[in-house]
Amino acid sequence: MITLTRSALATSIGTVEVEASERGVRSIRFLDTKDAIALPEANNVQLQECMQQLAAYFAGERRVFDSFALAIAATDFQQRVWDAAMEVAYGETATYGDIAKSIGAPDAARAVGSALNRNPLLLVVPCHRIVPASGGNGEFACGAWRKDWLLNFESAKG
User: Fold this and answer.
1) Is the full-model pTM beyond 0.85?
2) Residue among 8, 50, 84, 127 flagged as catalytic
């Protein structure tokens, strides 16, 4: 039986909720509230480490997420896209086409966008750093305004 634990972090752009199992972090998502959510204390090392790193990220003290396991289900294509997105450095951007080329599927920019839209690990898999080649910041599953905020935050801290 898999035991899931959750925790939440209030940020200036909404509450971030993290869910983890014993195997690792399964999801990171924004909730449409800026209020802290009371959840029971999680006795999950992976979850606690992720929460500490997210708090440091929003404090401008962390640029890379590491040292906690990820436990997500993905197709091979999604995993390749998410892995490529994780290579885009803090404060940098890449286009959907750049990601498609990097995974050996140069004509799959739209499919890259679809895979990123299904990203269950926001921030850790930094899909907000992937932008359209035509300009602008593009869409974001949690709202384009959050994508704009994250890109501005990272460039200001870069």
Assistant:
1) yes
2) 127
Strand-strand pairing, 25-31 and 94-95? unpaired
**Confidence tier at 117 by pLDDT (50, 70, 90):** very high
Phi, psi of 5 (to 5 degrees): -125, 155
Integer CA distances (angstroms), 69 to 24, 50, 65, 74, in order: 4, 9, 10, 15
Look up residue 53 and give its two tokens. Answer: 């790193």
Residue pair 113/91 in contact (Cβ under 8 Å)? The answer is no
pLDDT in tens, 137-158: 988 989 999 999 999 999 986 5
Digit-coded pLDDT (tens) for 20-55: 998 999 999 998 765 556 666 668 899 999 999 999
For 117-138, give one letter per residue: b (16+ CB within 10 A) or e: eebbbbbbbbbbbbbeeeeebb
**Catalytic-residue membership of 127:** yes
Contact predicate 100/108, CB 8 Å: yes
